[in-house]
Amino acid sequence: MTQSDTSGYQAGLSVAEVQNLAADQPITKLSSNENPFGPSPAAIAAARDALEGANIYPERTDAALCQKLAEFHGQGMQPEQFFSANSGVEVLSLIEEALTEPGQRAIICPPCFGAYTGSLLKKGVIVDKVDLIGTGFDVHVDGILNAVTPDTRLVYLCNPNNPTGTYFGADVLDAVLDGLPDHVTLIYDEVYFQFATEFDLPDALRHVRDGRNIVIVHSFSKAYGLAGMRVGYGIAPERIAAQIRKRKRSFHLNSMGMAAAIAALDDTAHLDRTVTNNTAERARLSEALNDMGFEVARSQANFVMFRCPEGKDAKTLTNELVTHGVMVRPAFDLPNHIRATVGLPDENTRLLNALKSLQDKANP
Length: 364
Fold this sequence. Notes:
Layout: H1 15-18, E1 28-29, H2 41-51, H3 63-73, E2 82-85, H4 88-99, E3 105-108, H5 115-122, E4 126-129, H6 141-147, E5 152-158, H7 170-179, E6 185-189, H8 204-209, E7 214-219, E8 232-235, H9 238-245, H10 255-266, H11 268-291, E9 303-307, H12 314-322, E10 326-327, E11 329-330, E12 337-341, H13 345-362
Parallel strand pairs: 1-10, 3-4, 3-5, 5-6, 6-7
Antiparallel strand pairs: 2-8, 7-8, 9-12, 11-12
Helix pairs in contact: 2-10, 3-10, 4-5, 6-7, 11-13
């Protein structure tokens, strides 16, 4: 879709593609959970250095990145327990290719990341759904375990969850893992883990070291600001990681992306700046939305999710906001909820002002 033929906002569009909908206003993009500070300066420098050798193929393997990831995570983790891919979504795809066959089944827990279903269906995997429960969008542990069949191969849990931002503790993770039979692997999507500053997330690495059937999914797109580089990685017991690694293409990551990712891991100051802003602004944004009468989910991610006003759905509100120069997106699986990225203070204020303007128009 090009700018000229865009008649209404759709999730996933770029700033250029919606500029015509906002007339001459600048666009504040709060729709894709990107890092508002951009990449680490160290990552940019590393990518620029690597660009000078862009005429040369990158290393065939990701050994250097996996070694760096093992050192970064520590706790006795080994390079053989890591594998990388061209984005977190490709990490999921590699897992599915390695651990499922057409006609087998996987369990997801809506509302959840929309890519789970699309990726599974492309591989001929049957998708079973066990909804999150209650106003807190809690994991339905018994529901998941009761939904497992002899043909089930994968269960997906996201923590903090996308699109709700909600989270769960070690008791839930342990209960699911302990209840799953040996033929099922848990996909533990932890892409937003760096932003969970007010709650202790489970130590999922412990389960990897113990050899449990678990694959952890991480990405450099969010906290590290490298969404355009498309670098994701998985962490799993060596026997599972080896199965998944066989599905990778040679030269699956470009030289610039690998160099930037390795450098980003060392720039703790940039990560701290990102997380500090997110923690403060997430609280401010959530409180302000609550004060305006919106029902806001408790978030530990770099976004907040809120329910639309009575009588208005997410698609309508999203389209109205883009006319005010603010891009958000309808939440996956929830037609009456909006997911908005936590941006810089002025960006979040612009979202709040746009919502206030719409409220005033609806209630003159």
